[in-house]
Design a protein that fits this description.
alpha/beta; 8-stranded parallel beta barrel; 16 strands; about 30% helix; globular
Amino acid sequence: MAILNKSTADAIDDSALDAQGGSRFPQNGLTMRSVCKLFVALGSLLLSLRPAFSIEPAKPQGNLPACYAQLGILADSNGPSAPAVPDGLGVNIHFTDARSGEMHLLAASGLRWVRMDFTWSRIEKSKGQYDFTAYDRLVSTLEASHICPLFILDYGNPLYDGGLSPYTEEGREAFARWAAASAQQFKDRGVLWEIWNEPNGSFWRPKAKVEDYVKLALAVGRAIRDAAPQEIYVGPATAGIKFDFLEACFKAGLLDYWRAVSVHPYRQTDPETAQGEYKRLQDLIAKYAPGKTIPILSGEWGYSAAWKGMNEERQGKILPREWLTNMASSVPLSIWYDWHDDGENPTEPEHHFGMVSNPYDPAREPVYEPKPAYRAAKTLTTVLSGFRFDRRLEVGSSDDYALVFKKGHATRIAAWTTAAAPHAIVLPAGRGRFEVTSYLGSPLPALFADHQRLRIVLSDAPQYIIPANRTQLASKP
């Protein structure tokens, strides 16, 4: 994690609302008063939402056991190399019990994954005794919303090694036993098991030490393989893409256990700058695991709206660019940090990573105010639903991005630029009309291609180009 961590209440009776914010009439029958209150609430909701935004629950797409296969990270997977949108997209959360209406809002974004601490000290409070109750509730809640969990096996336990990160044989063995029991408890439910969170930084106590981390990660790998060999185990979730730490893990043999390598590519520069680091890391993995397919996961990455040069509008533009860059770099899973803002201090960066705002209002739907980042996420998962990344078009400048996505014979393009000023480019396209959708889901003026050319003006905000009447788009390589 980056750092550890309007109202309609006066217009509507809480007893007339269920946990999802919908209407429910009292058992003694429908009254004119309750009808009036309901219409007031609905009117307030409609006025509060922008025209391009709606909260409709995501439709189920496949079964949870397909969580692994949809990312293509099973060793015996014959699935596609690139997952279909939105199968590889998710967000960090910090709860085991969602607030009323919260999962409805999260699922409506179209995301398919959440990443959450699976905290050792919370589960093993007496030696050898494990209480998974809270996480059982969370997994059941996620399953009901067709969302897959990435659980982080993390942090010390005061029962061992004084609560520090495990550094003795006793501490490592206890952690590994707990990890194996956890994998057994949730086997066949689509969990990705990740070993620790940013062990190269302050989350490894008292001080980051790669040798101790490697010993723990190997012990956990052996334990999970013995107890639940079908479960997927990944790591090391480094803060940044830190090659020295990663190579030490690879040299020690962890690629024999990890089915994917997770990193947190945080930066305050454009997300497109991660492409070169991804390529270098892919080459390093290939060096230590020749002949294997071990993908890179973007396990946590976000941009605070309180950073210098950032605000909520720019954060909303950055989110789809980050995810689209990952897709173009063969990164099958992208987890945005964070789900909701952690506070309201305007100068505290940790308070402003969220896709939705901090204040929670159970009497309103949505219960959190969506930020542009949420609307951008929902737009991407909607417009590109079922499409897979195909290729990047060469359009004359390395600053300009035109990514082709395909679903069967259908084609769509996501386009933007990192250049300082908007400018026009020309895309190869068959004759016809093209609809254009903004990164926030609003319709933009339609475009028309002639003479196999489609002219479009790019800016730092992604836009989605959609052929009308099945016109062939990007017909040339």
